[in-house]
Specification:
The complex is a heterodimer of chains A (243) and B (408). Chain A has 243 residues and is an alpha/beta fold. Chain A has seven helices and ten strands. In chain A, the strands form two sheets. Chain A has a six-stranded mixed sheet, with helices on both faces. A four-stranded antiparallel sheet of chain A has the order 2-1-4-5, covered by helices on one side. In chain A, strand 7, helix 6 and strand 8 form a beta-alpha-beta unit. Chain B has 408 residues and is an alpha+beta fold. Chain B folds into two domains: 185 residues, no CATH class; 208 residues, no CATH class. Helices cover 57% and strands 15% of the residues of chain B. The chains are: A alpha/beta (243), B alpha+beta (408). The structure holds adenosine-5'-triphosphate (ATP) and magnesium ion. Adenosine-5'-triphosphate (ATP) binds next to strand 2 and helix 1 of chain A.
Amino acid sequence: MSNPEEETPLIHIVNVTKTYDMGAEKVHALRGAGLDIRKNEYVAIMGPSGSGKSTLMNIIGCLDTPTSGLYNFGGSNVGEMNDNELAAIRNKQIGFVFQTFNLLARSTALHNVELPLIYAGIPAADRRERAEQALANVGLADRMTHKPNELSGGQRQRVAIARALVNTPSIILADEPTGNLDSKTGEEIMQLFSELHRQGNTLILVTHEEDIAAHAHRIVRLFDGEIASDVRVDNPKVYARTS
Amino acid sequence: MFRLHELREGLRIAFTAIISNKMRSVLTTLGIVIGIVVVTLMATVIEGLGTALDNSIKSLGADVYYISKWDWFSDEWWKSRNRKEISLAEARQMQEKFTLAEAVVPVVQAWQKTMKYRNKSVKGNVIGTEEAYLITSGVVPEQGRFFNDLEGSSGRPVCVIGHDVANTLFENEDPIGKTIKINGYSYRVIGVFEKEGSFLGSAMFSKDSQSFIPLPNFYRVFGNERSIDIHVKMGPDVDKEDAKAEMIGLFRQIRRVPPADEDDFGVNTQDFLKKIFESVVGTIGVIGFLITSLSLLVGGVGIMNIMFVSVKERTKEIGTRKALGAKRRTILIQFLIEAAALCLIGGIIGIGLSYPLSLIIDTVLPSSMPLWVVGVSLSISITVGLVSGIVPAYTAARMNPVDALRYE
Ligand SMILES: Nc1ncnc2c1ncn2[C@@H]1O[C@H](COP(=O)(O)OP(=O)(O)OP(=O)(O)O)[C@@H](O)[C@H]1O
Ligand SMILES: [Mg+2]
């Protein structure tokens, strides 16, 4: 941590563009963005609506591919990967947390958390144990068999976080994770993220709210598909360890 | 190991999806259900016909030729209308001269005559014949005995009755020794044949509704203008084809058929039954096949449609699964399993419906649903599911994760 510039960055993005061809006009969602993110960084991506935050996140998360530019993840070129390799990266290296939680409505919390492990081919007994542990870590040991509609918004987002963490990814990507939560619940989720960061996880978080971004150690601002600023936060908001 | 996981998750998803859309799922499978019902019932009917055929063949006797004025089931049966009747004298000559035969028996039949016992009566064919009929028909009465030639030549009023006749006339009584009226004449029952069943509902060749009396008695009751059938059972050691040729040649001589003319009599065998059987089975098969393929096609299109709906409804779920690391193959398998499971349910419902229906068929045509048809039906169902699920499943597998996640 003393001199992070020396390591290869986990995420290395150079001059990435994303253009949507809408027939009559072209939408330039990203116009040559560059960004390096290292292990154990906690980055907030901010910017006005439509500035390209989600587009950038999707590219980082290997859900989408850039129109042009270079993207290296952990040293390998994502642009050269086939569909199965991308799926494997999403499965093992990346943990997604969505604004709308995106839990499977008909499955229990436990099964939702088990999903990435199923796709990783982890044997059932092992899988169950790890999923239970992940749920316990986010404080939901007593809600394992509940279905999403039996959980509060905050609890649902915790299930989603447990799901993102269960396969011990290299990075956690959260696109407006508190966007659908009230401010108190949002704070609880942010507290959980800070804790995850303290445990050594790498986090990227998209948000509109300065309050939320204040938890991060670095703030990247997008404007009209370009990176307008990239600053370190000198003294991020921290919480005392709870329980 | 990996694939097994995928399969289990696929089954689990299919199960949840189908359960949460019970009504829709069941309605969707209607085409499959109909298709499977038709297939299973068709197989049941064909099996039943096969059994009936075997029974009828037994009752007609193997290696027996039936020389008759008529060609049975010929396309040109009307041609035989103008033929000369076969007389008893001709039959007697045959008996005398045709030495290759084990038995040559004249048989004459009167249609739909009344048989009475006390206040009960039944209609059936009355047959006049001789003792050797036992040899050509190959069956002996189940109860009592057949009349012998002594009784025959002395014109004793005795009769042997078919199973149904006995059942109708004598509900709780022993028929043997009782006197019944055949066309108004009294006959003592000396034997009852066992139940034979009929082929395609035709009682024509079944003894069940018939009664048998000695030839002289028959002439007394019904006159002698009817054409005689001659039943010929070949001897055990003769070459069948040669013997048949000789039999025909001899009978042409007896009938004085000029050498250039066609036979003026028919030589029939039980083979015609096989022909009818094959043509009936062929017809049932073709119709059944058409109905089945049509309903499976309609069913398959229905399944494809509902699978497209299912894929559309779960677009966001597909996006989420992809974000969590599901490969294209995994998604493909998931939806294929769902489609196959839907059709399998249709197949099971179909079998469930056709089983009671097969019991109803059994009352008309003795039969049972063959077990193999269950396996075939289930395989057909799964295949239809896989085939109709492939395009929707492929669409799902090919979805771009971002677009899928964005879908509302
Ligand atoms: N699939 C798409 N087709 C066409 N245009 C798109 C598509 N996805 C994004 N865009 C456009 O790209 C631009 C950037 O979108 P993006 O979702 O990244 O914005 P954002 O910064 O996440 O905004 P918000 O804060 O509202 O979520 C927008 O102008 C959007 O309309
Ligand atoms: Mg966004």
